[in-house]
């Protein structure tokens, strides 16, 4: 694969051994390349601004400035989101108390540090393509937590749906069900290109920075 088609990744973790291990796995893939590494949140923001990677693998728990600080700062600087860098948060625990906050700040997904090689590389590719990239265990916890905590949608959430067309609502609902673009195309009997267009417009209109955010919005607002 030509270098121009490679997915560049910035690996951020305070433990050198983990940085090296993740880097070795990613560099072993023909379509993935490690653009650089960082050891804390401040280094991550500086490296992202300089390297503009497709995906950040961003550890949550780090000294000095953690991953949540970095995520917020990346968003403030306009370095995160569609057409820019996508952030995959790394965590040791599927019940990490920061999951909800990270998704709200624009993370593309969560990945457990004990994930398999296939889950890691697949999540990076999914994030680079603008898709949801959540560990199944984390996904289940997020959705269950929101359903328990929310009996009915807030006025602010409902307002985010106001400009959606009926078909865009259908797409949002299916994203909330965890379907991929290809699965949505099959369900709605439309082309993959059409689905991608609907997803892009839906994310823009709802203000969601990732499919993960859209999934939570769908679960909170749509029957």
Q: Span from first to last CA?
A: 43 Å
Radius of gyration: 17 Å
Shape: globular
How many beta-strand runs? Answer: 5
Structural class: alpha/beta
Give the strand order of the largest sheet, numbering strands 1, 2, ... along the chain: 2-1-3-4-5
> Tell me about the biggest sheet?
5 strands, parallel
In DSSP terms (H or I, runs of 4 or more residues), the helix count works out at: 11
Low-confidence stretches: none
Topology order in helix (H) and strand (E) letters: EHEHEHEHEHHHHHHH
Question: Beta fraction of the residues?
Answer: 5-15%
Q: What's the mean pLDDT score?
A: 85
Helix content: 40-55%
SSE layout and pairing:
Layout: E1 7-12, H1 16-27, E2 32-38, H2 41-51, E3 55-59, H3 67-76, E4 86-91, H4 99-104, E5 109-112, H5 117-128, H6 136-149, H7 155-159, H8 166-176, H9 181-188, H10 192-206, H11 211-221
Parallel strand pairs: 1-2, 1-3, 3-4, 4-5
Account of the 3D structure:
The protein has helices at residues 16-27, 41-51, 67-76, 99-104, 117-128, 136-149, 155-159, 166-176, 181-188, 192-206, 211-221, and strands at 7-12, 32-38, 55-59, 86-91, 109-112. The chain is of the alpha/beta class and 223 residues long. It has a five-stranded parallel beta sheet with strand order 2-1-3-4-5, with helices on both faces. Helix 1 links the parallel strand 1 and strand 2. The radius of gyration is 17 Å and the shape is globular.
